[in-house]
Amino acid sequence: MPTEQELQISPIVQESLMHNSRILHNLQSLTASLFGVSAGILGLESYSGFLFYLVFSLLTAALFYAVRVAPTSLAAGKAPLDTSRYFKSPFEFWAGGLMNELAGFILTWTLFYGLVRA
């Protein structure tokens, strides 16, 4: 949690937090559908398809962190993996979209699995 002095020097702006969350949500929605297409084309079934989704969703969050959050955090002297300045909570960043985007993944997964196997 930032101290009072840190908040006075660089305040946390709610509009920026909402913008960051919206960008991350859009990325997670797009990639969940793309992962569903990939899992369907590969013919993954049952647990292997869900494991595919879990691994690649976390990989996407890590890549997003490496490209967008880490350079600015390290430049500001923050601890690694600290997302508190840019998102409401670390859970929202790392795992918030897993359950929210699962329906889109399953929809495209079953669609493309049916198209390829038909």
UniProtKB/TrEMBL annotation:
The keyword Membrane applies. InterPro entries: Emc6, EMC6-like. One of its GO terms (cellular component) is EMC complex. It is found in: Endoplasmic reticulum membrane. The keyword Flavoprotein does not apply. The chain crosses the membrane at residues 50-70, 91-116. One of its GO terms (biological process) is autophagosome assembly. Keywords: Endoplasmic reticulum, Membrane, Transmembrane, Transmembrane helix. It comes from the Eukaryota. Its main location: endoplasmic reticulum. It is a multi-pass membrane protein. Belongs to the EMC6 family. This is ER membrane protein complex subunit 6. It comes from Thermothielavioides terrestris (strain ATCC 38088 / NRRL 8126) (Thielavia terrestris).
